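Quick one - first record:
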Amino acid sequence: MKHLSILLATLLFSLALQAQKQTVSLDNITRDGTFYARSVRGLRSMSDGIHYTTLEEGKRIVKYQYATGKQVAVVFDLEKEMKGEYDIKRIEGYEFNGSETKILIYTNAEYIYRHSFKANYYVYDIQYNELKPLSENGKQQIASFSPNGEMVAFVRDNNLHLSKLKFGTESAITTDGEYNKIINGMPDWVYEEEFGFNKAYDWSPDSKEIAFIRFDESNVKEFAFPLYQASYPNNEEYSLYPGQYKFKYPKAGEDNSVVSVHVFNIKNRTTKTMDIGEETDIYIPRVRFTKTEGKLGIIKMNRHQNYLQLMIANTNSGVCNTVFTDRNERYIEQDVLDNLQFMEDGQHFVYVGEMDGYNHIYLYTMAGRKVRQITSGQWDVTDYLGYNASTKMFYYQAAAKSPMQREVYAIRNDGKKQIKFSTVEGTNSASFSKGFKYYINYLSNTTTPTLVTLHDGKGKQIRVLEDNKVLKERVAQYEISPKEFFSFKTSEGVELNGWMVKPLNFDTSKQYPVLMVQYSGPNSQQVLDRWSIGWEQYLAAEGYMVACVDPRGTGARGEEFRKCTYMKLGKLESDDQIEAAKYLGSLDYVDASRIGIWGWSFGGFMSSLCLSKSDVFKVGIAVAPVTNWRYYDSVYTERYMRKPQENASGYDDNSPINHVDNLSGRLFLIHGTADDNVHYQNVMEYVDRLVQAGKQFDMFAYPNRNHSIYGGNVRNHLYKMKADYLLRNL
């Protein structure tokens, strides 16, 4: 009886605790950051490899010791050094010069597109305790120290400038820069968005030269959209008459910028044009100096992006020689651009490519001769992390165990010795100190919020930097439905991976509505073993099952799986999402008549297309969707589809705008009117076709919002609106 009483008391206590738990609200997801995992960001290894710095509270740059974690010094304190001379309220970013005697900081950043921004830069001299503005002639962009720390290059008004710190002089390297016409040292819109960078210049290692890309976008057509007063920010100047924003945006099959490569000699103040060939309909997505004086590496790609050349330019003569080529029958992903690295010995370079059908590390001589393939196997290297010359080890992240996980490894340059650093399953990434004496590992999985740990170069854990203990305690106060992974085979015999979150108080005897979430874009992944508590937990509390499936075309499963969607973007992906819906509908606890699908951007394109290809979906929500690939930009679209002039059926057969007659279910379209990426045009033209086809649908537009649709109360409103829509229609 005593034991029974104890058991009963324990059970009642457990039930009482359960009753006290909260369910996830929309405010938790969109406003409060309740489940946001803390991390360690902005940490920079110092050149000695045994210290690092962090930016704390936007006020101080603090130096720490890796081994002990003890604070060594406050390198810069904004409140102490300001002395009221300059109006700097917060440091937003910083970098040291090579000798770590000066710091370049920026503040008042004014963002333009995804990566680009203007800011006020300042130079702080540590030895003399002196802070000076980099320039007093207007905000600057992408400022950077020369390797010797004596100069700073930056862009302003589309021109490249040079500041000599010792003499306090500023001079223009280029003078022909003009908005919507000529850009020097900084990419145009499509390069920034699709080649993922905002700095199109590079210092030579000896600080004698600056190489830069010049973009002539004169023949690129302009795209314009209206700007309203709205709020966050409030545009008072448009209170009565809307304004207009115009920028150069090359759509698929249209003219791109004509690019050229130039090298400025600082001593002679002369600029030499590099001979990259007569063909102008090409891409130059990177320029990077080699370790040899007077030798510049230029990456050149054809318009189809299936032919990559590494050219080595003689900066004195401008003569370029191609030392390496990568040809692919389909395309080369832009990820390779930052994974082509010149080694410190000046004799070799590293390239991460798909030459054997999987993404692996290769070592080449500077003459382009392959030394060897470093990694191999039926799995993908997902990130190249560097090379340690003293131990002759390459470091990388890979999906070697499962496409749904990531591990960190090192392998000797002969490929014979491999070390696995990751000890806990999930998604691991690492940041190594200079010299590879230490590294910081970032781990998360479905049950572990970001865990940041410091390790020595052999993998031994030294200490925990962030364990998110507070978040774990907070999560324990909520009813959370666990994320369960699953896989299934389609009718074509393709195995697909997915996850599901079942409703709270799940009962196998009941049938539940399902909302499928997905992105589905090329080389993307949503089905990953990583920490995330989002909208799916709110829906689970409201009685929905939420599921996600990565279709063909997504990443970490080799080249064939990734590129089988080539020339027919959307076809196989939508086929797979429809198959996933049918699989889910076959489960005993799913109501097959109440399955919905939603997505954002490429995911919105998929939601729209799926509703025209099958009646398996009752509801579709498409946020900022591409509705016609002819409306999207040249670099991204043509990489996967070639030009519409070459592949008209690939474009037209798989764009939702051409399938409005077959639309079934209830469709909800949502878009921002100031979306510079996926233009509002996509929805407006789609709406017209739907209307003419006599199809009923719902639509909502957010004034002045870009592709991310946020600002003020916007994000909370968006998710509340979507939730209400599902409640009414699913």
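second record:
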Amino acid sequence: MARYLGKETPRVDGIAKVTGQAKYAAEFQVPNVAYGFIVTSTIAKGRIAAVDTAEAERAAGVLRVFTHLNAGRLGKAGAGADGWAWPLQSDRVFFSGQPVALVVAESYEQARHAARLVRLRYREEPHQTDLEAVLSRARPDPESAKAKPRGDARAALQAAPVQVAAEYRIPIEHHNPMEPHAAIAFWEGDALTVFDKTQEVYGVREHLAEGLNVPVEKVRVVSPFVGGAFGSSLKPNYYPSLTAMAARALRRPVKVVYTRAQMFTGHGYRPATVQKVALGADRDGRLQAMVHEAFHNTSAFDDFSDATTRFTRQVYACPNLDAPLKVAATDLPTPTWMRAPGAVSGMFALESAMDELAYALGMDPLALRLANYAETDPDSGKPFSSKALRECYRIGAEKFGWARRSPQPRSMRDGRLLVGWGMASSVWGAMQMPASARVVYRRDGSARVASATSDIGPGTYTVMTMIAAEFLGTRLDQVQFELGDTRQPRAPAQGGSWTTSSVGSAVRGASLAIAGRLLALAQRDAASPLAGVRADAVEMLDGRLRLKADAARGVDIAALMQAAGLDEIAETHEAKPSAERANYASLAHGAQFVEVKVDPDLGTVKVTRVIEVSAVGRILNPLASHSQEIGGVVWGIGMALEEATEVDDRYGRMMNANLQHYHVPVNADIHAIETIFVEEEDTVVNPLSVKGMGELGMVGIPAAIANAVYHATGRRVRDLPITPEKLL
């Protein structure tokens, strides 16, 4: 019987966060710090013809104005001469909002004021920021192209008795985490320390070592708390290298913080997508062909792909499938991963098309999905390590009351409001990455646990504390878990929903290794009650090492360590995916049922009820897990109804780079949300039997909402977001 795992546990870092003890990147107190403010380009493409910094340099408190003419070199020789790998390295401008100067002053206000006094003259070149205009120039994404088509999808489509085909569009969308991106950099001799907002301290360390041409062991990156990131801090952004370069040149610490507007061009975004989906089925609804062609934008200087069509291959049993992805260069900054990258975009198109097919067949949308349920992975033919999606459908439909749905659009009402019910499926990979953790167990029963992972909000501090306490047999308050520092054992980036499976497995492994060490100590005594037993037969609990099958047989750990002259025992463990995983397909699944109410006169949509059922392996902390899934639903509502980054293609500029005009859900937009878990026992995915849930929670929501809106109104909106003018 688990002591902590599977039980609702409040955040161990909660008090630190609400009392202000938790320090975020810009909050570290460093003596004699100077403040940097970034100047960004006002054109989308061209060259800097002239820079005048004289007035800015004369302004009060200004220490230096860095431009491409006087900035320290970043990157390998020649890097950035023609491309944009590092900031302030050439006169080239590749996107509107690109950093073109850094003003450093004694105070933030002085730096910001002086930044307005920097004068730049440009030689503009023709730019193109409209994805639709460059679709003909799109190139196949090499990674996606490795997955070959199944059967002959286009021939099977032509032969299918029932066919649907449609195009779906999603605009650029932006991560808008509460904490702005920031770094503080300081040098001690040739050693650099950087406090940075990042999802991977080791990645930033390597980036800075390369950029500044210093040995990697001379760089320390620290990031103990992150106020939301959602993918915007997975790749190293340009500001840490800029901050470190300025700190080296000025020989004093420098702090740089993005403004909210700078965040729109400073850390990537969800790319704009155009998707063409064609489905062919027999009259019983069994899919004969799936063609899912996706296009999205990248930048002119960097290739990026979010694998939009990746999961289309694994969702439904269908003998003929083609799911190509093409990427087109635009004169915008490079996109990046954003919560449920690729999957939520791809599944919006696929699950909307499935709803359209259900109507073409005169079939219930849930019955259509069950008719095409994949018992094994359609792509590889391998069995699933676990798959409880059928149970998700059953529980969700029952809870929601799906059987009472009248299928005809506009047939359900609440007074004058049109009522719509829609559903969708969701899928995400159940991944594990190599990760290491160190456990130091002390004679008094307390423990320090460390791994250089991140906590961008899902509750990593808490779940790692729970795992360590579970396997060390201690109380939660006896475990101190530390993260976010390159002095700790290496961990992967916090992304992809793999942190608990990866770092959690390492913490479990290191804790079990401590028990193994203690057992070896006990077995030095031939008369020990644990003589001759194997390590997997014992457990640590409340200061004793005891036999699992017979709690009376055990030894006191403190006495054991004292006899051996030990104050503490330390173990570092690296956890890796098991070889057995290769024999299976491992995915997390879910089903979403959504109710909307639409005002027929105003076109306003309210999502009044959501039931989301997820199969994500074992749930370690239900309190945090439900919070994660509710957050995913909220974001899905934002994506479906509100979120869009407006680009004025005449200027290549993102126009609504603030929280006043970039709309996200507020409390008044959110009504009843219920999240339910169907637990799966799956030790193939990892020893803890956990699958990631952070991404999965939003994957099916935009499609389910769009399907519900169609049911309510009879209007099929294929271009997100679904705003009132599209329904009037």
